[in-house]
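QA checklist item 7 of 12: single-chain prediction sanity check.
[x] sequence parsed
[x] length recorded as 364
[x] structure emitted
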Amino acid sequence: MKLNTIIEQLEMLAPLSYAEDFDNVGLLTGNSEQEINGILVCHDVLENVLNEAIEKKCNLIVCFHPIIFSGLKKITGKNYVERVVIKAIKNDIAIYALHTALDNHQNGVNKIFCNQLGLKNTKILIPKEKFIRKLVTYTILENHEELRNALFDAGAGNIGNYEDCSFNSKGIGTYLGNENSNPEIGERFEFVENEEIKLEVTFEKELESKILKALFKTHCYEEVAYEIYELQNQHQNIGLGMIGELETELSELDFLQFVKDKMLCGSIRHSEFLHKNIKKVAVLGGSGSFAISKAKKMGADAFLTADLKYHQFYEAENQLLLADIGHYESERYTKNYIVDFLIKKIPNFAIILSEQNTNPVKYF
């Protein structure tokens, strides 16, 4: 199977447009046209993971964390990143990273986190901003329904739990064509006033080229009048972190033991106990200190994340229980989810879960 075919499936799992601007996701090494014999799925690409891929005859590694994060000015093998890149290229192994593209997906990292804890009534903690755009265009009544349906088919008009959403209003359009025009209604040099319908639909920004293609293909006018706006609305189904509720509330001590057992934590660092039960829980896999204030604002009894610094524990402000469960631990089941997804999408193909534990943090 060619790599670009597999990438199409990975883009369904985690669209690259979902990723944060600082991130480095997608194909990191390899050629999208190369033939793939097998896929190894891992959390981090280290040298031992590359050795495993070579041994198991997998020439594609799908990883969560990107091995190339910041720019490489030299590749001399002086550190683990450069050694991995050199070895991957020498052995013709492609590397594809998902990271925040999967973090921001409504069924991604944080949903997996919530599912492991059995949280109910989950929703995005920090919805993504500046991701929704609006198309406004104008057409005649005879073309209106066909055009609207074409835009819906291209992915426009989805709002939360609803689809095929649009706003339609009637008005008068005017135009006067020059000698090179070929108007649908009227003649060259004729001033035309005609009843038109103003059609408005929203769409996710990564669909813009597809939306415009449908617009130009289906619109009946020679010159298509349209406008695209970037909206300030938050996207309720895309974003970082999640918040939900436990089936049964737990004491703080029982809750931390529950988390430790479910997430297989070596230890948990936490803020001072408030001596109240835990019911509403916010989670953010990986480094999530930036979301402490949002977790408090959303009324969470506890916030589970990783990489908290000393002074950040003070930000609990006697409002919630802050718990650092470990970076790897908070994301540990992600690779299993990726494997399950690929097996369903690409059956009868070698898709292997790496046996390597790449957690760099050890506990005594």
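[x] summary fact logged: The mean pLDDT is 96.
[ ] second reviewer sign-off
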